[in-house]
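Internal tracking record. Fields below are filled automatically when a chain is submitted to the structure queue. Please do not edit lines marked as system-generated. If the sequence contains nonstandard residues, flag them in the REMARKS field before resubmitting.
Queue: standard
Priority: normal
Entity type: single polypeptide chain
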Amino acid sequence: MPAATGFVGRNDELGILAERFAAAAMGHPQIIHLEGEAGSGKSMLLARFLGSLSDVVLLQAGGDEDEMLLSYGVVDQLEPGTSREPATDPMAVGAALLDLLDQLQSDGRVVVVAIDDLQWADRPSSRAILFALRRLRADKVLTVVSARAEGLTDPGWARFLGSDARVTRVHLGGLSSIDLTELASALGLGPLTYRGASRLTAHTEGNALYCRALLDEIGVAALNEGDGGLPAPRELSAVILARVTALSAATQSFLAAASVLGQHSPVSMITTVAELPDALDAIDAAVGAGLMSEGVVASELSFTHPLYRAAIYADLSPTHRQMLHARAAECVAGHARLAHRIAASAGADESLAGELEASAQKSLAHGELGTAVWAFERSAYLSPDAGQRERRLLDAAGVQLIAADNAGAARTLTACRGSSARRDALSGLLGVYTGSPDAEDRLLRAWESHDPGTESEIGARAATSLANWMVLSGRSDQALIWAERAVDGTFPGSALHIRARVAQAFALSAAGRSPDGLSMLDLPPASGNEVQAAATDALIMRGMLKLYVDDLAGAIADLGEAATRLRNGMPASYPGMCLSDLSDAHFRRGDWDAAVTYAQLATSLAMDTDRPADLARAHARAAQVLAFRGQWADADAHARAAQAAAERFPRALTTAAAAVAGMSLAFARGDWTGVVDAVEPVRAAGPPSVAGLPGMLNWRAFEADALVGLGRLGDAERALDEFDAAVPQGGLGSAVLARARCRGNLAAAMGDETGAEKAFSQARSIRTTAPMPFEAALLNFDDGRRLRGFGRGPAAVGRLEEAHKAFSHLGADPFVQACAGELATLHVTAAPESPAKLLGLSRAELAVARLVATGLTNREVASELFVSVKTVEYHLRNCFMKLDITSRRALAALVN
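SYSTEM-GENERATED OUTPUT FOLLOWS
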């Protein structure tokens, strides 16, 4: 219905939209979620609001049920004329969209992004847009998305819309009786009484589309004058078909052909499929009846509402529909032609199924995963042979797992009817991703039932998945066995062989043998950017293992290169672990701004792919650095999220990740009981395993400190003995340093001055392979407290002032305050904190300032922090104002 004659009510909703627009105009990005059932008036409300705006940059797009397999179809509407490969990763497209939003704000105008029918957006567009929206921080951007109630099945969008503070949900319920009286008047149908409107409202629950249909069908007089109950509301299709029946035969043929071609099509194509030599009268009649309208392109026609098209399409007889699809197949090419041929088929067709399978393989080779899944599934259902059907369904499920579509893979695997090693291997891998309790049983069944002679690849895939599962479960000895089986079952140099070697390296690391794992990876190029694209998984694992042996520079180089590849669209099997461990590497090296950035990016990615194991690790990394900075609310939220993810996937590594998150928050607050309680689930899980391995998960030193703080000195002694035993083979400098510091704290608590002196001297003599500022600051802090306790005030002041300076540089506020407190007891005033902190820069502003001070451009800073350039400009402008400076050079002098 045209906005000029069919829009009524919704004043409250329009007020909310206007309010959020005003907030966006102030540089506070907003997202509005218009939600309602089909026919509730979402599109009309959106059109009315957009029509009320002036002097804005408007980007509009709409999802289409028939274009859900068109990779980046919705993004292409937002940015027409841009050429991109369907295989491009959503992260890369999202980053480009972020750049576009930056450019469009350059003149100070508000950018309004309007996406109608989000539930029908293609998956790559959906993920790319979500990636961009999550990173808007100080942008003049208002995003309005509409979707049917319960229509959003993408868990990433559901979580974002349900939890992000920038999102305002506007639920469109039914129209009121007053609204309906206005509607009748606007449509020129005459006055509808309040009584008549109340009857209509009660009968239809105010559904705008159904109300208009009944107003047209029954008329105002019948509603006003009738005493009895109204007839049961007919489906909208009945109303539409009644209109269609009143039209000429030629118009009906035209509408039938258009419904087969889709929501919108070129007029020439509709005419050809309808076999009409002259369709001008039919076009005029279809538009005049309100069933179709001119598209953006003058030569195209669109159905006024998708339900109109659906009603007409559903009314076609099977033979008529098949005939029209057969004609349509002659007018189009590529996947569209295949889709019409499928609809034209009368049943099983092996020839067509074979073509679809070949098309799927071609799409897969080009990285068009969504199209490949569609073609595999359709080829399966057209297969006359049950075995071929099963094989093709499993092909589809395998691609869905590559595309991180866990829900889709689950549906496809459920549709499989037979039992096979391959089905069990895929089901088991899905279980590894989702934390299913039957994952191990499925994988074991796949291994035991596969035929080594003809199904060696299936066996190797199952063994690789089992190796990773055993690491997650804390059974490194079993992981090594399965990894060896996986390597033995693959051909050297093959992609599957590389994947098996990566799993073997992971298993070796989980067994405390990270140096052996590094040797196993066998990547000749020392520089990560020289590693071949096919070995990206190995590059990620090499970076992870370097982290576990204290090679922080090497870890950051390898994982940073891998993160760049991920952003540029390169697929990888371990993206979540890459980003989480890159965050941890930056945390240990003292670059806590980068640590926060990568932890948040890892969290976002894990949420999008719905991998609870990755989610637990990502939230734990975020919780640790935020807790040590004293950002209690954010740290607590991440700690609770890590715990929730661990409960979904109760395995050794996820349990330990949640423990690290909770322990970090308690330790930063000085809550010693909380520290001990947080790590108790790790201890309760059984003997020491990967969950207690220093280098990979560092909680043992904090537990020992907490036990000393509680006066449980005997327990602290036993915990430190376990710490000794857990240090990996070949030693680990960071663990040895932390252990010696804890020994010094224990000796000091026992009054053993000589023992404490010896332990702290030993800690100071240890040289780690990389500087670890927080560990060094903690050592100075504890040593200063020890010296003060034994009456050596002057020496204590020196240690505490060193600690205070280091903690201040890191932004470790709780520890800065603790140092200041210790110094105060010695009648010493703590030195001023960093100049930037004293002058009132926020965390975000300081992060931007520090990167700008290194000489990076605004765009390079935005890339580093995964935010928009506009956000960088906003924070930089605030820095200049707060610090009363005008140059980047002056900024560098203050924050360095």
